Amino acid sequence: DTGVSQDPRHKITKRGQNVTFRCDPISEHNRLYWYRQTLGQGPEFLTYFQNEAQLEKSRLLSDRFSAERPKGSFSTLEIQRTEQGDSAMYLCASSLSFSESTDTQYFGPGTRLTVL
Amino acid sequence: QKEVEQNSGPLSVPEGAIASLNCTYSDRGSQSFFWYRQYSGKSPELIMFIYSNGDKEDGRFTAQLNKASQYVSLLIRDSQPSDSATYLCAVNRWNFGNEKLTFGTGTRLTIIP
């Protein structure tokens, strides 16, 4: 399978604990995006990387959230001191983008986080 | 006003009929428009994208874009039960270096056998 992969697929944690999610993009894709989706809503943008550079962060991304993409390959999203409101599906998407072309994003299977 | 609006449905369509899904957007700077299909509990799956006014066909799917009216639609011909899912409309401003997708809340489609 050469699609976007995410790990873990499900995570249950207690309030106040830290969690970390991993995303492996499609090989050679230079852009990687994180979104969050809650029930009945569309995905909401959190942040994105071009290669290893984090180019934009949403206002939704509080100080408790941090994302990295070392060496421009896989990415991690960490949530510190989780709250019940963090319960959601965390989606990763990747794309191969270069100037003058539209950016088509392909999503991974997501990590479903439940904060008790 | 939401940036991307969709009728949440549910939209029920008989098998074999045409399903019509609609989406409006508020940002006139939007350049690219995407339709994703999402089955319950799964992640969004890209169906097609469009960025020029008019129609774009791909198999049983046709996307229609009218930038003057800020309207994009998806037609599904010969609807099948496997088409039952939530359909998400997404737009971006395509400005190199700023290409996040803004999604609507999705329209739930049910194909009735």
Helices and strands, with pairings:
The complex is a heterodimer of chains A (116) and B (113).
Chain A (H helix, E strand, L loop, with lengths): L4 E3 L2 E4 L5 E6 L6 E7 L6 E7 L2 E5 L7 E4 L6 E5 L8 E8 L10 E2 L3 E5 L1
Parallel strand pairs in A: 2-11
Antiparallel strand pairs in A: 1-3, 3-8, 4-5, 4-9, 5-6, 7-8, 9-10, 9-11
Chain B lengths: L3 E3 L4 E4 L4 E7 L6 E7 L6 E6 L3 E5 L2 E6 L4 E6 L8 E8 L9 E2 L3 E6 L1
Parallel strand pairs in B: 2-11
Antiparallel strand pairs in B: 1-3, 3-8, 4-5, 4-9, 6-7, 7-8, 9-10, 9-11
Description:
- The complex is a heterodimer of chains A (116) and B (113).
- Chain A has 116 residues and is mostly beta strands.
- Chain A has no helices and eleven strands.
- In chain A, strand 7 and strand 8 form a beta hairpin.
- Chain A is globular.
- The N and C termini of chain A lie far apart (33 Å).
- In chain B, the strands form two sheets. In chain B, strands 2, 4, 5, 9, 10 and 11 form a six-stranded mixed β-sheet that branches. A five-stranded antiparallel β-sheet of chain B has the order 1-3-8-7-6, with no helix packed on it.
- At the A-B interface, strand 4, strand 5, strand 9 and strand 10 of A face strand 4, strand 5, strand 9 and strand 10 of B.
Summary tags:
A: 116 residues; mainly beta; 7-stranded mixed sheet; 11 strands; B: 113 residues; 6-stranded mixed sheet; globular
Classify the helix fraction of chain A into a percent range.
under 10%
Major β-sheet of chain A, in short?
7 strands, mixed
Fraction in beta strands of chain B: over 45%
Mean pLDDT across all amino acids of chain A: 92
**Which structural class best describes the helix and strand composition of chain B?**
mainly beta
Q: What distance lies between the first and last C-alpha atoms of chain B, to the nearest angstrom?
A: 36 Å
What is the distance, rounded to the nearest whole angstrom, between the alpha carbons of the first and last residues of chain A? 33 Å
Q: What coarse outline of chain B follows from CA principal-axis ratios?
A: globular
Name the poorly predicted regions of chain A: none
> Would you count the extended β strands of chain B for me?
11
**Inertia-based shape of chain A:** globular
Number of helices of chain B: 0
Q: Biggest interface, which chains?
A: A-B, 28 and 28 residues
Q: Estimate what percentage of residues of chain A fall within beta strands.
A: over 45%
Which H/E pattern describes the elements of chain B? EEEEEEEEEEE
**Number of E strands of chain A:** 11
Low-confidence stretches of chain B: none
The percent range for helix content of chain B is under 10%
What is the C-alpha radius of gyration of chain A, as a whole number of Å? 14 Å
Summed up, the helix count of chain A is 0
The pLDDT mean of chain B sits at 92
